[in-house]
Amino acid sequence: MPSPSVSPRIAAVAPESPAAVPASAAVIADEPGIGAWRSFLTAHARITRRLDEELQAAHGLSLAEYDALLQIAHAPGRRVRMNVLAERVILSRSGITRLVDRLEAAGAVERSACATDARGQEAVLTPLGLDRLRTASATHLEGVRRYFLDRLDAADLDGLETSLGRVADPLGPGARPSHEGCPPAEA
Amino acid sequence: MPSPSVSPRIAAVAPESPAAVPASAAVIADEPGIGAWRSFLTAHARITRRLDEELQAAHGLSLAEYDALLQIAHAPGRRVRMNVLAERVILSRSGITRLVDRLEAAGAVERSACATDARGQEAVLTPLGLDRLRTASATHLEGVRRYFLDRLDAADLDGLETSLGRVADPLGPGARPSHEGCPPAEA
DNA sequence: GCAAGATCGTTGACTTGTCAACAAACGGTC
DNA sequence: GACCGTTTGTTGACAAGTCAACGATCTTGC
């Protein structure tokens, strides 16, 4: 499932050639930070494509499926409300329904009714799912290292983390509480 | 066309709890650079989703379509071989065929047979397409500024550009020549 | 206690991408 | 100059996501 990516040179077009400029002249408005923006897009498109290919080839998992498994594995009790899972994987609710359908068909996950909310469903990791995840994570981490971590030193990584964090944080899904599963049954 | 994104916490699972660890303990292998990697993924998912929504709402263009228009506008003669366009927008050849179909239906682009290679087609920007692109680029650039550029200072941007460039460059499509259009007809 | 509204997960219809297969055209070799 | 392999763009069949609508359930105000 190679991501749709969208990529290289997303900038803009100059307002309008002021008559003197030949028709074939450049049209990019080269704003100061645009280079960084381009690198950002290009890097993401290329890396995720590679990682997805490798994961798919070696374990038959898409990056989204891997991510979902990881999210579940990481939650207490290895179970997460569909709801919450959708938000974490950044998918719509219907998207998560379908992704979990696939994982369930593959035996990596099971659905389980939520004890305290009859509407709710939880996705629960099966032992087989955990196995799959463990195996796949070797491949995945290897890729992340090779394409990303190994090319950057500690200072770079630090810079990236704070810069991109500053960019991503304010776009988060409003700092809601959003506990991850059904609260334990008793009052 | 909100990108599939794939996102937050893509790391890995610890090898196996060494017996003493309670079953509910953390499972993430927290490698040094993983924080940066997460920020990277999250930032990308959130920003592109916003930009795509805004572009779609204001001008009925997806980010991929916008990118394609921009690539064409940017090429000499405002025309590009399908071939090359696919590579630049990071889409398969069939993907580009379909995207150009849409743009053509919208009147933003026309197909034109390549003079020197009877197999070839070029996507040529129409005046209307250029107009659409210009209008849309205002929205788009505004968004890039608001979500990305404005949150970073010059040093951050510089760091991002070089770091991510170092990451993206080696994954490029092999430094092939790949001239963008049909060469002019005469020998 | 109950009606009105919000939320949850699923489904149908659709969009946008992929891959495999194709015909047409190119490019080199003999 | 005819053949053989490659490249080009399109197509059919499919994959994986979206949105809108739905029934079931929760929650809140009265």
Explain the overall architecture.
Two copies of one chain form a homodimer. The first copy, chain A, is mostly helical and 187 residues long. The first copy, chain A, contains six helices and three strands; from the N terminus they run ααβααββαα. The first copy, chain A, has helices at residues 34-59, 63-74, 82-89, 93-105, 127-147, 154-168; strands at residues 79-81, 109-113, 121-125. Chain A has a three-stranded antiparallel beta sheet. In chain A, a hairpin with a 7-residue loop joins β2 and β3 (121-125). In chain A, α1 crosses α5, α2 crosses α5 (127-147) and α3 packs across α4 (93-105). The longest helix of chain A is centred in the N-terminal third of the chain and has 26 residues, at 34-59. Chain A is globular. The termini of chain A are far apart. The interface between A and B is large, with 83 and 83 residues.
